[in-house]
Protein backbone atom coordinates (compact mmCIF):
# COMPACT_ATOMS: atom_id res chain seq x y z
CA UNK A 1 0.00 0.00 0.00
CA UNK A 2 1.30 3.40 -0.96
CA UNK A 3 0.66 6.26 1.37
CA UNK A 4 0.38 9.62 -0.29
CA UNK A 5 1.55 12.63 1.70
CA UNK A 6 0.01 15.90 0.80
CA UNK A 7 2.61 18.59 0.06
CA UNK A 8 3.09 21.21 2.72
CA UNK A 9 1.46 24.52 1.91
CA UNK A 10 3.81 27.15 0.54
CA UNK A 11 5.01 29.58 3.17
CA UNK A 12 5.00 33.23 2.26
CA UNK A 13 8.18 34.54 3.90
CA UNK A 14 7.03 38.11 3.38
CA UNK A 15 4.07 37.53 5.70
CA UNK A 16 5.07 35.15 8.51
CA UNK A 17 2.40 33.78 10.80
CA UNK A 18 4.31 35.09 13.80
CA UNK A 19 6.11 38.27 12.76
CA UNK A 20 9.11 39.32 14.82
CA UNK A 21 8.95 42.61 16.67
CA UNK A 22 11.23 45.36 15.37
CA UNK A 23 14.61 45.59 17.05
CA UNK A 24 15.71 48.76 18.84
CA UNK A 25 18.31 50.82 17.02
CA UNK A 26 21.21 53.08 17.92
CA UNK A 27 21.39 56.78 17.16
CA UNK A 28 22.61 57.63 13.68
CA UNK A 29 25.89 58.93 15.11
CA UNK A 30 26.78 55.31 15.93
CA UNK A 31 26.26 54.14 12.35
CA UNK A 32 23.76 53.77 9.55
CA UNK A 33 22.78 51.77 6.50
CA UNK A 34 22.26 53.45 3.13
CA UNK A 35 18.85 52.37 1.82
CA UNK A 36 17.33 53.33 -1.52
CA UNK A 37 13.91 54.94 -1.25
CA UNK A 38 11.95 54.26 -4.48
CA UNK A 39 9.40 56.93 -3.60
CA UNK A 40 11.98 59.74 -3.60
CA UNK A 41 14.56 58.14 -5.87
CA UNK A 42 17.23 58.94 -3.27
CA UNK A 43 19.18 57.08 -0.61
CA UNK A 44 18.37 57.55 3.05
CA UNK A 45 20.15 56.61 6.25
CA UNK A 46 18.60 53.98 8.52
CA UNK A 47 20.00 53.40 12.04
CA UNK A 48 21.64 50.10 12.92
CA UNK A 49 20.54 47.42 15.34
CA UNK A 50 22.89 45.69 17.76
CA UNK A 51 22.57 42.53 15.66
CA UNK A 52 23.87 44.35 12.58
CA UNK A 53 26.82 45.75 14.52
CA UNK A 54 27.73 42.42 16.11
CA UNK A 55 27.53 40.29 12.96
CA UNK A 56 28.49 42.10 9.72
CA UNK A 57 27.63 40.50 6.39
CA UNK A 58 29.20 40.74 2.95
CA UNK A 59 26.27 42.77 1.68
CA UNK A 60 27.06 45.41 4.31
CA UNK A 61 30.28 46.41 2.56
CA UNK A 62 29.93 49.86 1.06
CA UNK A 63 26.43 50.18 2.51
CA UNK A 64 26.91 50.30 6.28
CA UNK A 65 28.90 53.15 7.80
CA UNK A 66 30.12 53.17 11.41
CA UNK A 67 32.07 56.33 12.23
CA UNK A 68 34.81 56.05 14.83
CA UNK A 69 36.40 58.66 17.05
CA UNK A 70 39.23 60.66 15.52
CA UNK A 71 41.63 59.12 18.07
CA UNK A 72 40.55 55.59 17.14
CA UNK A 73 40.97 56.28 13.41
CA UNK A 74 44.31 58.02 13.97
CA UNK A 75 45.91 55.10 15.78
CA UNK A 76 44.42 52.44 13.53
CA UNK A 77 45.83 54.29 10.52
CA UNK A 78 49.25 54.71 12.09
CA UNK A 79 49.49 51.13 13.39
CA UNK A 80 48.45 49.72 10.03
CA UNK A 81 51.28 51.56 8.28
CA UNK A 82 53.81 50.65 11.00
CA UNK A 83 52.92 46.95 10.91
CA UNK A 84 52.85 46.90 7.12
CA UNK A 85 56.32 48.41 6.89
CA UNK A 86 57.68 46.01 9.51
CA UNK A 87 56.10 42.75 8.37
CA UNK A 88 56.74 43.21 4.66
CA UNK A 89 55.10 41.71 1.62
CA UNK A 90 54.95 38.17 3.01
CA UNK A 91 51.97 39.24 5.11
CA UNK A 92 48.47 40.43 4.31
CA UNK A 93 47.27 43.15 6.65
CA UNK A 94 43.54 43.85 6.65
CA UNK A 95 41.62 46.73 8.20
CA UNK A 96 37.86 46.49 8.78
CA UNK A 97 37.63 43.66 6.24
CA UNK A 98 34.96 41.05 6.97
CA UNK A 99 36.63 37.70 7.74
CA UNK A 100 34.85 34.38 7.38
CA UNK A 101 36.72 32.00 9.66
CA UNK A 102 36.18 28.78 7.72
CA UNK A 103 34.41 27.15 10.67
CA UNK A 104 30.73 26.48 11.10
CA UNK A 105 28.97 28.39 13.87
CA UNK A 106 31.63 31.13 13.88
CA UNK A 107 30.10 34.50 12.94
CA UNK A 108 32.04 36.71 10.57
CA UNK A 109 33.86 39.71 12.05
CA UNK A 110 35.76 42.68 10.68
CA UNK A 111 38.73 43.27 13.04
CA UNK A 112 40.37 46.68 13.20
CA UNK A 113 43.60 44.97 12.09
CA UNK A 114 44.36 41.37 11.18
CA UNK A 115 47.83 40.10 10.24
CA UNK A 116 47.75 37.04 7.97
CA UNK A 117 51.02 35.29 6.99
CA UNK A 118 50.94 34.35 3.34
CA UNK A 119 47.43 35.71 2.81
CA UNK A 120 46.45 37.30 -0.49
CA UNK A 121 43.97 39.96 -1.43
CA UNK A 122 40.61 38.58 -2.55
CA UNK A 123 39.47 39.29 -6.09
CA UNK A 124 37.71 42.58 -6.63
CA UNK A 125 34.28 40.96 -6.71
CA UNK A 126 34.87 39.35 -3.29
CA UNK A 127 33.88 41.69 -0.50
CA UNK A 128 35.44 39.68 2.32
CA UNK A 129 38.38 37.45 3.24
CA UNK A 130 37.60 33.75 3.50
CA UNK A 131 39.99 31.61 5.51
CA UNK A 132 41.06 28.60 3.48
CA UNK A 133 40.15 30.16 0.14
CA UNK A 134 42.20 33.36 0.20
CA UNK A 135 44.84 32.19 2.65
CA UNK A 136 45.40 30.96 6.18
CA UNK A 137 43.87 32.06 9.46
CA UNK A 138 45.04 35.42 10.86
CA UNK A 139 47.90 34.88 13.28
CA UNK A 140 47.38 38.20 15.07
CA UNK A 141 44.34 40.40 15.53
CA UNK A 142 44.19 43.91 17.01
CA UNK A 143 41.13 45.80 18.20
CA UNK A 144 40.91 49.36 19.53
CA UNK A 145 37.90 49.93 21.75
CA UNK A 146 35.03 52.12 20.59
CA UNK A 147 32.41 53.78 22.74
CA UNK A 148 29.49 51.68 21.57
CA UNK A 149 31.31 48.34 21.17
CA UNK A 150 33.78 48.42 24.06
CA UNK A 151 32.07 45.61 25.98
CA UNK A 152 32.02 43.47 22.84
CA UNK A 153 35.74 44.10 22.29
CA UNK A 154 36.58 43.26 25.90
CA UNK A 155 34.35 40.26 26.49
CA UNK A 156 32.93 38.67 23.34
CA UNK A 157 35.82 38.95 20.90
CA UNK A 158 38.41 37.17 23.09
CA UNK A 159 36.07 34.18 23.18
CA UNK A 160 35.38 34.25 19.43
CA UNK A 161 38.99 34.73 18.32
CA UNK A 162 40.15 31.96 20.65
CA UNK A 163 37.37 29.67 19.42
CA UNK A 164 38.40 30.05 15.76
CA UNK A 165 42.12 29.61 16.57
CA UNK A 166 43.66 33.08 16.22
CA UNK A 167 47.01 32.66 17.98
CA UNK A 168 47.40 36.14 19.51
CA UNK A 169 45.02 39.01 20.18
CA UNK A 170 45.70 42.57 21.36
CA UNK A 171 43.09 44.99 22.69
CA UNK A 172 44.06 48.66 22.99
CA UNK A 173 41.59 50.27 25.36
CA UNK A 174 41.48 54.04 24.80
CA UNK A 175 38.37 54.42 26.95
CA UNK A 176 39.87 54.01 30.39
CA UNK A 177 39.20 56.56 33.11
CA UNK A 178 40.71 59.98 32.60
CA UNK A 179 43.24 59.56 35.40
CA UNK A 180 44.41 56.22 34.02
CA UNK A 181 46.61 55.55 31.06
CA UNK A 182 45.47 53.64 28.03
CA UNK A 183 45.37 49.91 28.70
CA UNK A 184 46.85 47.07 26.68
CA UNK A 185 45.28 43.63 27.07
CA UNK A 186 47.05 40.79 25.33
CA UNK A 187 46.11 37.16 24.81
CA UNK A 188 47.84 34.07 23.49
CA UNK A 189 46.32 30.70 22.60
CA UNK A 190 48.36 27.93 24.17
CA UNK A 191 47.19 24.36 24.72
CA UNK A 192 43.72 25.04 26.08
CA UNK A 193 40.55 26.21 24.30
CA UNK A 194 40.63 29.64 25.95
CA UNK A 195 43.13 32.45 25.71
CA UNK A 196 45.75 32.97 28.38
CA UNK A 197 46.25 36.63 29.23
CA UNK A 198 49.78 37.94 28.66
CA UNK A 199 51.62 39.38 31.63
CA UNK A 200 53.14 42.82 31.03
CA UNK A 201 56.89 43.33 31.38
CA UNK A 202 58.52 45.81 33.77
CA UNK A 203 57.58 48.75 31.51
CA UNK A 204 54.02 47.56 30.98
CA UNK A 205 54.79 46.26 27.50
CA UNK A 206 53.30 43.20 25.82
CA UNK A 207 55.26 41.10 23.32
CA UNK A 208 53.55 39.16 20.53
CA UNK A 209 55.56 36.29 19.11
CA UNK A 210 53.58 35.83 15.91
CA UNK A 211 54.55 39.26 14.55
CA UNK A 212 57.74 39.86 16.57
CA UNK A 213 56.58 43.16 18.08
CA UNK A 214 56.29 44.67 21.54
CA UNK A 215 53.60 47.25 22.34
CA UNK A 216 53.75 49.84 25.15
CA UNK A 217 51.08 52.37 26.12
CA UNK A 218 52.60 55.66 27.29
CA UNK A 219 50.01 57.33 29.51
CA UNK A 220 47.18 58.69 27.40
CA UNK A 221 49.55 60.07 24.80
CA UNK A 222 50.80 57.37 22.46
CA UNK A 223 51.33 53.69 21.69
CA UNK A 224 54.94 52.73 21.15
CA UNK A 225 55.85 49.67 19.08
CA UNK A 226 59.26 47.99 19.24
CA UNK A 227 61.06 45.29 17.29
CA UNK A 228 61.05 42.45 19.82
CA UNK A 229 64.49 41.22 18.71
CA UNK A 230 66.48 44.44 18.31
CA UNK A 231 64.56 46.72 20.65
CA UNK A 232 64.37 49.40 17.95
CA UNK A 233 61.25 51.54 18.12
CA UNK A 234 59.09 51.69 15.02
CA UNK A 235 58.46 55.24 13.85
CA UNK A 236 54.93 56.53 13.51
CA UNK A 237 54.07 57.82 10.01
CA UNK A 238 54.60 61.49 11.06
CA UNK A 239 57.95 60.58 12.63
CA UNK A 240 58.94 58.59 9.55
CA UNK A 241 58.02 61.54 7.32
CA UNK A 242 60.01 63.94 9.53
CA UNK A 243 63.00 61.57 9.41
CA UNK A 244 62.68 61.27 5.62
CA UNK A 245 62.57 65.04 5.16
CA UNK A 246 65.50 65.46 7.55
CA UNK A 247 67.50 62.87 5.63
CA UNK A 248 66.63 64.53 2.32
CA UNK A 249 67.67 67.93 3.71
CA UNK A 250 70.94 66.50 5.03
CA UNK A 251 71.59 64.80 1.67
CA UNK A 252 70.82 68.01 -0.23
CA UNK A 253 73.10 70.00 2.08
CA UNK A 254 75.88 67.42 1.65
CA UNK A 255 75.46 67.55 -2.13
CA UNK A 256 75.54 71.36 -2.04
CA UNK A 257 78.71 71.30 0.07
CA UNK A 258 80.26 68.81 -2.32
CA UNK A 259 79.38 71.03 -5.28
CA UNK A 260 80.80 74.08 -3.51
CA UNK A 261 84.01 72.24 -2.66
CA UNK A 262 84.23 70.94 -6.22
CA UNK A 263 83.77 74.44 -7.63
CA UNK A 264 86.41 75.81 -5.23
CA UNK A 265 88.82 73.02 -6.18
CA UNK A 266 88.30 73.59 -9.88
CA UNK A 267 88.80 77.32 -9.39
CA UNK A 268 91.99 76.70 -7.44
CA UNK A 269 93.23 74.29 -10.08
CA UNK A 270 92.43 76.80 -12.81
CA UNK A 271 94.26 79.53 -10.89
CA UNK A 272 97.26 77.25 -10.38
CA UNK A 273 97.30 76.33 -14.05
CA UNK A 274 97.09 80.01 -14.96
CA UNK A 275 100.03 80.86 -12.67
CA UNK A 276 102.06 77.95 -14.03
CA UNK A 277 101.41 79.09 -17.58
CA UNK A 278 102.47 82.61 -16.61
CA UNK A 279 105.71 81.30 -15.11
CA UNK A 280 106.50 79.31 -18.25
CA UNK A 281 105.79 82.39 -20.36
CA UNK A 282 108.20 84.51 -18.28
CA UNK A 283 110.85 81.83 -18.36
CA UNK A 284 110.60 81.55 -22.11
CA UNK A 285 110.88 85.31 -22.50
CA UNK A 286 113.71 86.08 -20.05
CA UNK A 287 115.32 82.76 -19.39
CA UNK A 288 115.68 80.97 -16.09
CA UNK A 289 117.43 82.68 -13.25
CA UNK A 290 120.35 80.36 -12.51
CA UNK A 291 121.57 82.43 -9.63
Characterise the protein shown here.
The chain is of the alpha+beta class. It has two domains: 184 residues, tt1808, chain A, CATH 3.90.1570.10; 50 residues. Helices cover 30% and strands 22% of the residues. It has four helices and 14 strands. Strands 4-6-8-9-10-11 form a six-stranded mixed sheet, with helices on both faces. A three-stranded antiparallel sheet has the order 2-1-3, with no helix packed on it. The N terminus is likely disordered.
Short précis:
By secondary structure, this protein is an alpha+beta fold. It has helices at 50-54, 70-87, 150-164, 237-286; strands spanning 32-37, 42-47, 64-65, 91-94, 98-100, 113-117, 128-130, 140-144, 168-173, 183-189, 195-197, 206-208, 213-218, 222-227.
Count up the domains: 2
What's the pLDDT, averaged over the residues? 84
* Main sheet attributes: strand count, strand direction, barrel closure: 6 strands, mixed
Distance between the termini: 147 Å
Q: What is the name of the CATH topology of the largest domain? A: tt1808, chain A
**SSE order in H/E notation?**
EEHEHEEEEEHEEEEEEH
Taking all Cα atoms into account, the compactness measure Rg is 32 Å
Strand order of the main beta sheet, please? 4-6-8-9-10-11
- The CATH first-level class of the largest domain comes to Alpha Beta
Uncertain spans: 1-9
- Dominant shape: elongated
Structural class, from helix and strand content?
A: alpha+beta
Instruction: Report the helical percentage.
Output: 25-40%
**Alpha plus pi helix count:** 4
Name the CATH superfamily classification of the largest domain: tt1808, chain A
User: Beta-strand percentage?
Assistant: 15-25%
Strand segment tally: 14
Q: Name the quaternary structure.
A: single chain
CATH architecture classification of the largest domain: Alpha-Beta Complex
Amino acid sequence: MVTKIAPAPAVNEAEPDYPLPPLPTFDLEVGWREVYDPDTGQFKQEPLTLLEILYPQDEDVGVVTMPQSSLHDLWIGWLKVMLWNFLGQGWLLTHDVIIHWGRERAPAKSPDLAAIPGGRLPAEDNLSYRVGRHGPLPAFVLEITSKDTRQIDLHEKPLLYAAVGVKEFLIIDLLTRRRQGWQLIGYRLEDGPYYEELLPDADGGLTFETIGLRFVAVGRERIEVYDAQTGARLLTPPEAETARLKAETARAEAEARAETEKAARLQAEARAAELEARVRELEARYGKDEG
